Amino acid sequence: MVRLHLYISGRVQGVFFRGRTQDEALRFGLTGWVKNLWDARVEAVFEGEEEKVKEMLKWCHKGPPAAHVTQVEEVWEEFKGEFGGFEIRF
C-alpha cells in the first residue's frame, strides 16, 4: 500500500476536476481527498494499492476533458491508512 500527494497545475479549476477525480479514485478503490487551492492548483492525496495509485497518477496528468494539465508535482509519502473513503474538501 502506498500514499501519493499531488499538486496539479494548469486549467484545473472550474472544469469538474475535483468531482471527476473523486469518481476515478472510487473506481480504483482508493481513499484520500482532493481540493482546490487559492493559487488555482488542485491538491490531492491518494492511498491504496500501488498499481491503482499509479493508474490514478496517469489520469491526473490528463484530467477531465475540459482540463489542461501543465504540471503534476508528486510526493510519495508513507502509507498511513487514515481515510475511510475519498472526499472533496473545501
Would you write up a description of this structure?
This protein is α+β, with helices and mostly antiparallel strands. It has a single domain (2-80), classed as Alpha-Beta Plaits (2-Layer Sandwich). The protein has helices spanning 17-27, 50-60; strands at residues 2-11, 31-36, 42-48, 68-77, 86-88. Strands 4-1-3-2-5 form a 5-stranded mixed beta sheet. Strand 2 and strand 3 (42-48) form a beta hairpin. The protein is globular. The N and C termini lie far apart (26 Å).
Question: What does this entry show, briefly?
Answer:
It is built from two helices and five strands, in the order E-H-E-E-H-E-E.
Topology diagram in text:
Elements: E1 2-11, H1 17-27, E2 31-36, E3 42-48, H2 50-60, E4 68-77, E5 86-88
- Label the structural class: alpha+beta
- Helix coverage percent of residues? 10-25%
Sheet having the most strands: 5 strands, mixed
DSSP strand tally = 5
Beta fraction of the residues? 35-45%
Name the strands of the widest sheet in spatial order.
Answer: 4-1-3-2-5
Number of helices: 2
Radius of gyration from the CA trace?
Answer: 12 Å
Q: How many structural units, i.e. domains?
A: 1
Mean pLDDT, nearest integer? Answer: 98
Through-space gap between termini:
26 Å
Give the name of the CATH architecture: 2-Layer Sandwich
What coarse outline follows from CA principal-axis ratios?
Answer: globular
The CATH topology annotation reads as: Alpha-Beta Plaits
Order of helices and strands: EHEEHEE
The CATH C-level name is Alpha Beta
Could you name the ranges where pLDDT drops below 50 across 5 or more consecutive residues? none
